[in-house]
Specification:
Length: 347
């Protein structure tokens, strides 16, 4: 890996984006939110006559209830000292779960005893509740983040006390949500980390955007998702060839999507949060330090969009590009990224 970092206007930044960068120009090559859903549903086309027993899922931590938002119990994975002075709140992306951050959080807290990590399963995903009446749009998820930040700042401390150093980190749609919150509110955060963020107009391609609005497709595709299909789609779309990842974390996410409630929530998230409330006009309004990372081989959100983000993010934004890395640097490059985040958080 050969990361590149530095201020947004540093000399030679252009080459960071053009060197070995594949510019995705067709729908089949572009970022594929809804198409990833369809492909994950279609990877396994045959259904065994006798369902195979579920493979036990062993994760390094178990989610626990963290707070209630509009009647929905929101669960989170928690790492590190509950009285740590510095805290990081991680927000996952579309059709994901908090489990994908476990390796990163475990590494970060092991290296930094002064940091604790809180990884949400957003409402509609993972082990959190999946209310049928939730709007599942960007304002809704931003409100969830606001509540989470309040809880995280006070977690494990004496009544009335709160941590004074909180980093908000989001991947993909989670990055979209985090930017929206940071720009429109920003209360309770000291810095922002973005990992392959969504939210730029047209980044998923015309056909993918059409699919995310097509009620016929959205009425069928979520129903076809199974744990095994999700695992196959993840391997196909999310990671670069040869990248390692936790199968248990992927199975946790895919298994959670098998329930009717999860399928209904995913449909609403796709309709109401994807390609909505764009953030390109908000990036310059962010008033905290920003860290941006992207995989050069991202098959979901094109690496070329990193340059667009950097052009509008505040001056001094740190950028890191990962070679031979797909859409999930926090999974594929957990060791390197945890070290970078530790440096970004500071001592």
């Amino acid at each position: 890996m050969h990361p590149a970092s530095g201020p947004a206007n540093s000399i030679g930044l252009k080459s960071v984006f053009t060197k070995n960068c594949t510019v995705y120009r067709t729908a089949s090559q572009a970022g594929i939110y809804c198409m990833a859903l369809l492909m994950s549903a279609c990877v396994g086309t045959s259904t065994p006559a006798t369902p195979k027993p579920k493979i036990p899922i062993v994760l390094s931590a178990a989610p626990k209830p963290l707070f209630v938002h509009d009647g929905a119990v929101v669960q989170a994975f928690i790492f590190g000292d509950p009285q740590a002075a510095k805290r990081v709140l991680f927000i996952h992306g579309w059709s994901g779960s908090g489990a994908e951050f476990l390796d990163l959080a475990e590494r970060l807290t092991a290296a930094r005893p002064d940091v604790s990590c809180f990884i949400l399963d957003l409402p509609g995903s993972g082990s959190s509740d999946k209310p049928a009446d939730a709007p599942y749009d960007i304002p809704y998820f931003s409100a969830v983040v606001k509540t989470a930040l309040e809880v995280v700042a006070a977690y494990g401390l004496a009544p009335g006390d709160k941590a004074e150093d909180v980093t908000l980190a989001g991947h993909s749609l989670g990055g979209h949500i985090c930017v929206n919150y940071a720009a429109r509110d920003g209360t309770g955060i000291d810095r922002l980390a973005l990992i392959s963020p969504a939210g730029w107009p047209g980044e998923v391609g015309i056909i993918s955007e059409w699919a995310a609005r097509n009620t016929l497709i959205l009425g069928i595709a979520p129903k076809l998702i199974t744990e095994e299909n999700y695992l196959g789609g993840y391997r196909l779309m999310m990671v670069a060839n040869g990248s390692s990842y936790s199968e248990a974390a992927v199975r946790y996410t895919g298994r959670a999507l098998e329930t009717p409630e999860a399928k209904a929530a995913l449909k609403l998230i796709t309709m109401n949060a994807l390609e909505r409330d764009y953030i390109d006009g908000l990036l310059s309004s962010i008033r905290v330090p920003v860290f941006l990372s992207w995989g050069r081989n991202d098959s979901v959100l094109p690496f070329s969009y990193a340059e667009k983000f950097m052009a509008k993010l505040p001056g001094g934004t740190r950028f890191e590009a990962f070679d031979r890395c797909g859409h999930v640097p926090h999974v594929e490059r957990a060791e390197e990224l945890s070290a970078m985040l530790s440096d970004f958080i500071g001592r």
